[in-house]
Amino acid sequence: MGAHIPSTGKAQVRALLGLLNTAAEEAIAEYDKKGLDVPFIDNGYAHPMDGRLPSLNFKHAIRTLEGACGQICATLAQPSHTMVNYSMSAFVPASINAAIKAGIAERLSKHPNGLHVNDLAKETSIHPQKLGTLMRLLVTNHCFREVSSNVFANNRLSLTMLPNNANKVCDILELKSGEMHRKATMWLYEALTDPDFGPTYNATRSPLMYALGKEGYSGTLYEYLNTQPGVVESFANAMAGYRSATGHLNLLNVFPWGTLPPNTSVCDLGSGNGNISIEISKHFPQLKITLQDLPETIREAQKFWQTEYSEAVNEGRVTFTPLDFFKESPVPGQDIYYLSQIFHNWGDEHSLALLRNIRRVMIPGSRMLIDDYLAVHLDPASIEKQHASMSRAPRPLSPGFGHGQIRTYTQDFCMLIMCNARERSLEDFVELCAAADLKFVRVWDLAETCLTEFIAV
Asked: What pTM did the predictor assign?
């Protein structure tokens, strides 16, 4: 952070170009390490690295690359140009959702050389000219390709829309671009300024619940999901897809799981179907895993593990214990209590109740790992004061990496509209955990989310 700041706008752009070039070469080097060429964006087939866990070096390079690109464009273009583009970006997820519902990627997968829009229109029952409008908006965003006039084909990006893909990315695309998020954003301002909804972080007062209240629903997001057939499983798949897209499983490489002694106990709280802990168990079979979530979710988790990793189930290396973690404590005496993207779903009152329930059953040597985004304040002074283990953007990149770290803040917004909650800063977590007699130890930076470690006081 103490690096020289260019004194002119021209010098700043050129410095950003230097960062961009360096980051691009670092990303290219990651392909070289695998003995692979950089893919062409319009390939109609997946590149070998597309389904692999990106290394931390690769994620760091892409973060700087995206940040520098966005900042250069916002600097050189007129503000009105950039802001109008931002205001129209909501059309892209609407097009993604329509393309998924119409099964366009799946249909085009049978036509590697492309399919004419008239034929695609017959299969989807969408007017051909209207379908062409939708497709070209996605093509200009590098999703799908127009191989000749009105003939469309898949490319590497559109392949993520294939249903039941191994990484379940299609599930998260459908969730993020779907009806619930549209309803929540539609009524954002009204919910923020409503005298009942606006002043509180109560989970029943989210913008989503404001919208659903007009249809007769009340409660929280998760209570609503449980009223929708099949949604618990699809939501779990979407979370797995999101974690795949973010390279979240770098936690396997950053946290020293391999040094933990045999039979170390790990309690995955709010586990969902256990799509994270199943990978921990596969890579570190010396660990004893306990999954804890609501009864219906735990039933889905048992099915998932029996299908995906029956060996751990049969050997007794994983157990499944239903729990409402606001009303009762988790299994006592665990070496590690692990919570992945749980606290960002809840306000401080609920979060503190959960923390106290965990603290109540911790023993000397127990550790708690909070796996979540850390939403730092973006002024230079706050960045300077952040924990030493957290990455800092190289000058003159915007503090917080700008577009390179945008998912932290899109997720913060998502938690607001869906759950009436938020992503927290490290200081927020330290203060909240201190109220539950938990002491901060350190941060493990995953180049997007972070593992934050606490112990009992």
From this structure: 0.91
